[in-house]
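User: Some background: our group keeps a shared notebook of sequences we're curious about, and every so often someone picks one and asks for a predicted structure to add to the entry. Today it's my turn. The entry only has the sequence so far, pasted here. Could you supply the structure so I can complete it?
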Amino acid sequence: MKLATFTHAGRRQVGRVDAGRVTPLAVAAGQGLQALIEQVAAGGAMPDPAGSAVPLAQVQLEAPLPRPRRNVFCIGLNYRSHAAELAARGFNGAKTADDLIPKAVVAFSKVPETVIGPGAAIEMPAASSAIDYEAELAVVIGKAGKRIARAQAIEHVFGYTIVNDVTARDLQKRHQQWLIGKSCDTFCPMGPWLVTRDELDGGRLAVKLWVNGELRQDGHTSDLVFDLAAIIEALSAAITLLPGDVIATGTPAGVGMAYDPPRWLRSGDRVRVEIEGIGTLENPVR
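Assistant: Of course. Here's the predicted structure to add to the notebook entry:
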């Protein structure tokens, strides 16, 4: 099932997407998809339809979770191909991909205010001149848990969406810790909707990104260093994961910083991310 947050006739709603149309669901005004996820986590049923289907062309899609309940969890250096391309540039003194592939999950976060929806602009901050893109599969947690065993980890997933982990590389380097460079306003495009766990195998999905129609990233989640279950196991070993938590799982090769010279985003660019089985997320840059 595809679940979207959208605005129609001036009202934000949650709906089920099917065949190019969205059917509103009976979610209380102001509650949103977060409330739906919590309702299902508590053993409740999926809400009933609450109106007639509307063509997607007549609504404004928003991020599935326009303001996540807390920071978006992000996983760094989690594709072998990405480690290889950075090693080729001598990143952090690396000579081979093995020098960069982490031995444990590398986690950081983006603040909730970074999230924007499909079509919203990625805004270039005056503080940075090195804005990069990162196409990522995002996991949305559906059932709370701590010390979740690997064998049960996927049972805690509600569904999947797309995230573009936009990054100010110069700020990332300057401040060393990644929060500022990752958390500039508008730096987490998300969408176009959430696909429930029963429809996808998150470990078998193609991940692609284009800038102005040029294919830059062409990866696959089978290349993950730490798969989805390992990520959930590692995070929950110390942090209680909650319904609605978003985990961006890393990016494949092709990021702008890996080119020689680097290929940063510029005002007027359009960035499109596509993940197999989910859909397409496109945002302009200004």
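Suggested note for the entry: Residues 72-284 form a domain with the Fumarylacetoacetate hydrolase; domain 2 fold (CATH 3.90.850.10). The mean pLDDT is 96.
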